[in-house]
Amino acid sequence: MKKQNNEHTALLVMDVQGATVKALEEKERFFNSLQKAIAAARENKIWVMYVVVGFRKGYPEVSPQNKMFSSIIDGTRSFDNEEDFKVAEEVAPHPGDILVTKKRVSAFAGSDLEIVLRAQQIQHIVLTGIATSGVVLSTLREAADKDFKITVLSDCCADRDEEVHRVLTTKVFPRQADVTTAEGWTASLN
Predict the structure, then answer these.
(1) Cα separation of 39 and 105, whole Å?
(2) Would you say 159 and 127 are in contact if contact means Cβ atoms under 8 Å apart?
(3) What are the tens digits of pLDDT across the range 166-190?
(4) Where are the alpha helices (DSSP H) in the chain?
(5) Rounded to the nearest 5 degrees, what angle is found at the Cα of 29, between the Cα atoms of 180 and 142?
(6) Helix, strand, coil fractions of the chain, as percent rounded to 5
(7) What are the structural domains of the chain?
């Protein structure tokens, strides 16, 4: 990866919260890579922005017609306690980091993410998160349509289905983004 201009760049840490981390099998490897990326971003004065999914008590934002989120209403999935919503302590936000709450799969859906990015003149977003086939895919597609430059850190993304993760990061994402690892990205910052 060629040397990157850090100005106008933000690292997005998406859906790395209690409810999603529970599903990870390779937690240690995932968190080691993500911690390296976050540390490199901070060292290089790159915005670190956290995106979490969150709802009001009783889930009035969740439609029974929404196949993914309706499982919250019927009790199949849990977002009932503070730990389910909270960013994982392994990568917890620092003072000054931005926290964005979304209402759907894409980081842009039902959130003020685009307003924050535009206000800070961010043109390049670096995507990380759980799940590759969920928030990362949806955010990448929407960000591409909004003309952001996009990088995906493949080892800072995780999915329950390793084959889906592989296909997305090696065949689908490269059509609209640069795909690299945390190590490759951090090397491009120096």
Answers:
(1) 26
(2) no
(3) 999 999 999 999 999 999 999 999 7
(4) 18-21, 27-43, 70-73, 82-85, 113-119, 137-145, 162-167, 182-189
(5) 45
(6) 40, 20, 40
(7) 9-189 (3.40.50.850)
Taking Cα atoms as reference points, which of 90, 107, 95 lies closest to residue 12? 107
Give me the pLDDT at residue 146, please: 97
Q: In sequence order, what are the residues at sequence separation of 6 or more whose Cβ sits closer than 8 angstroms to the Cβ of residue 157?
A: 127, 128, 129, 130, 131, 132, 136, 165, 169
Which residues touch 111 (CB under 8 Å, ≥6 apart)?
51, 100, 101, 102, 103
Strands of 149-158's sheet, edge to edge?
98-102, 47-53, 9-14, 124-130, 149-158, 178-180
Nearest Cα to Cα of residue 128 among 182, 171, 77:
182
What span, in angstroms and rounded, lies between the C-alpha atoms of 184 and 98?
A: 24
Q: List residues bridging with 153 in a β-sheet.
A: 180
Rounded CA-CA distance 37/183 in Å is 8
Among 112, 109, 88, 89, CA closest to 99: 112
Chain Cα centroid distance, residue 38: 12
Compute CA distances 19 → 16, 48, 106, 151, whole Å. Answer: 8, 21, 17, 25
Full-model pTM: 0.90
pLDDT, tens only, 122-139:
999 999 999 999 999 999
